[in-house]
Design a protein that fits this description.
- This protein is of the alpha/beta class and about 190 residues long.
- Helices cover about 25% and strands about 25% of the residues.
- The strands form three sheets. A seven-stranded mixed β-sheet has the order 3-2-1-6-9-11-12. Strands 8-7-10 form a three-stranded mixed β-sheet, with no helix packed on it.
- Strand 4 and strand 5 form a beta hairpin.
- Helix 2 runs parallel beside helix 4.
- The radius of gyration is 15 Å and the shape is globular.
Length: about 190
């Protein structure tokens, strides 16, 4: 129910709404010590009305950070490739053409590549006061988080959202793990 409501609000956003928040999100995220000192950041390319990420990806690259981007596999797990600028992205259709994602066109590094990241930027629809993230429901990032845990990796977990998507409580499942911070256009909120 909450997921559907949040998606409806996002669907009502214009490209201008998204564009206005993209630079603010990038500025706030770049100020995070977790990203300021990161050598490798696993991120994603925003699609549709998601909070924009391209400005942040380009700024990280300009700092010399190695940026890994996901490649959606047929089983909804994620492989990874290196982001070498907007020209290194390919539009890939998934789900029988229902969903188009921008993915790195270069070499595939394997699903375990994410375990070498100093920080992981996670997509989401909401985060609550405890730092619990509500995703889209496909389970791709639940697999990423489980992979990180199995590998003993402990990167900073950061979600990029709109201000209205920081809520009191999201539904939680046993496998869910809290994030370390949420970045919105108006600021950063950290969780224990």
């Amino acid at each position: 129910m909450l997921r559907r409501e949040l998606l409806l609000v996002r669907k009502g956003l214009t490209q201008d709404d998204v564009r206005k928040t993209t630079d603010a999100l990038a500025t706030r995220a770049l100020d995070l010590p977790e990203l300021a000192h990161a050598r490798t950041v696993a991120a994603y390319v925003s699609v549709g009305s998601e909070p924009g990420t391209l400005a942040l990806l380009d700024a990280l690259r300009a700092r010399g950070v190695r940026v890994l981007l996901p490649v959606l596999l047929p089983d909804n797990d994620l492989d990874w490739g290196v982001y070498d600028g907007e020209g290194s992205l390919a539009r890939v259709q998934h789900g029988g053409g229902r969903m188009a994602l921008l993915e790195p066109a270069g070499e595939r590094l394997g699903p375990d590549a994410v375990t070498g990241a100093d920080a992981v930027l996670l997509p989401g629809l909401a985060v609550d006061a405890r730092g619990m993230r509500l995703g889209r429901g496909g389970g791709s990032y639940d697999r990423v988080l489980a992979r990180l845990e199995r590998a003993g990796a402990d990167p900073a977990l950061v979600v990029l959202l709109y201000d209205s998507e920081v809520v009191d409580r999201v539904p939680e499942e046993e496998h869910d793990r809290p994030v370390h911070a949420v970045v919105t256009p108006s600021g950063v909120r950290r969780f224990a």
